[in-house]
Amino acid sequence: MTLIDTVPGFIATLEALGAELGVDFPAAEMSSKLGPPLEQMMAPYLHADAIDAAGDRFRALYPTHAVPPTPALPGVAEALAAVRSEHGRIVLVTGKYAPNAQLHVDHLGLDVDAVEGWVWGAAKGTALVEHGASVYVGDHVHDVEGARAAGVLSVSVLTGGCSREELEAAGTDVVLNDLTEFPAWFGEHLLDQRLAALKEHLGRLGSVLVAFSGGADSAFLLAAAVRALGPDRVVAATAYSDALPLAERQPALDFAAGLGVRVLTPATDELARHGYVANAGDRCAFCKSELLDVLAPLAAGAGLAAVLTGTNADDARAGFRPGIAAAAERGAVTPLLDAGLTKAQIRTASRRWGLVTWDKPAAACLSSRIAYGIEITPARLARVERAEAAARAAFAAAGLQVLDLRVRDLGENARLEVDRVLAGSVPENVLVAVRDAGFAAVEVDPLGFRSGSMNELLEDPERYR
């Protein structure tokens, strides 16, 4: 990436070198064409046999004269954060002397994984390939040359000495005014790239059965499958059990009908599995095992090539997820995860496609509300569903809009998780509504709603005692 404004430091160092050598370098003019190797830039002003020594002296003077006054370019922190948010690596590939480039990185506290210096033009391609880069951001036509040599996407910014016309003529793929535009571009680029990968993956499968809970992820997956394969080669399966809230059933049927997809509603019996009822830390494994053991024969009987689940990239990074492993053992395919699509990207794409589920709150199964170690029963599941419906109604009566809400069953008592902005000001009528649903007492979690919070009890079982 092009990260710093090197002009002030370059001028200061060149002037210091010129003073020592008695050479009047046109520093301002030379700084307008930064990019080529230093020795090449100084060649018109020095005897040939003095160039190498002058270059060495410039690099020796550089830390003192160039590093302290050199600022980061506008948008650098946000650009680096955009890459980090997608779990990407950041490699600085530069024509600068590597130790001096590292000094800039350290001085400005830039979040960079590796620095590759003293490479120019097509030679940058070698470094990009070695680090597995997929995008190279630069400001010079020779940065474009490096990207082309590596076969990676070339993104150019107009904060260097090259014009848009020069960069486009060199073959850059994208031109941005500066790095402040990078996060938005990067987000769109990744989303488009991942949607294309999803479409290709679904197309290769040929025909699919989608495990369709009605939530935002599985709804998006169902819509994507229809786009890639057509409704005649897609079947939705919504498993009915005590763990699926009644309120989720009709909206799921309506959504699938809107896509022209046939819906199966097989019954699953998680409560017949001892490991599920016992509700230890591996409960989700038994739930997913039951689901796949029911859906796989249905898919085979309908001549469908694969059973798909809506597991996304965030789910796989969330740590302890035994359900994902159990589904994989039974051959479930996870196209959203395989394409790298995150929850945020799924919501963005869903909105782009006009899906009503784009902003639907997270809706994990009811058993996820019951603390590990407490036996799961139909009565407990019904009590949680009743309490959550009552809490939402009480918030609405108080004139408050809540997006995410969970009532966690801790045994006799409950813990309420809501959007963090509301966590410190839950009205009394909401707490009364939860208690009236069948709990002896209710507390509000000050940390607010977060997916998978029950896993915290596995790490610290005394936390909510």
Structure description:
- The protein is built from 22 helices and twelve strands.
- With 465 residues, the chain is an alpha/beta fold.
- Among the domains are: 190-352, HUPs (Rossmann fold), CATH 3.40.50; 366-459, GMP Synthetase, Chain A, domain 3, CATH 3.30.300.10.
- A four-stranded parallel β-sheet has the order 8-7-6-9, with helices on both faces.
- Helix 11 links the parallel strand 6 and strand 7 (234-237).
- Helix 1 (7-21) packs across helix 4, helix 10 crosses helix 11 (216-229) and helix 14 runs parallel beside helix 16 (322-329).
- Mean pLDDT is 92; it is low at 461-465.
Top keywords for this entry?
alpha/beta, 4-stranded parallel beta sheet, 48% helix, elongated, Rossmann fold, disordered C terminus, 3-stranded parallel beta sheet, GMP Synthetase, Chain A, domain 3, 465 residues
Computed Rg: 29 Å
Shape: elongated
What's the level 1 CATH class of the domain at 190-352?
A: Alpha Beta
pLDDT under 50 segments (min length 5)? 461-465
Fill in the CATH topology of the domain at 190-352. Answer: Rossmann fold
What kind of sheet is the major sheet?
Answer: 4 strands, parallel
Q: How are the strands of the largest sheet arranged?
A: 8-7-6-9
What's the N-to-C terminus distance?
Answer: 50 Å
Q: Roughly how much helix do the residues carry, as a percent range?
A: 40-55%
Number of helices: 22
Q: CATH superfamily of the domain at 190-352, please? A: HUPs
Strand content: 5-15%
**Annotated CATH architecture of the domain at 190-352:** 3-Layer(aba) Sandwich
State the oligomer: single chain
Number of strands: 12
- The overall pLDDT, averaged over residues, is 92
Class computed from helices, strands and strand pairing = alpha/beta
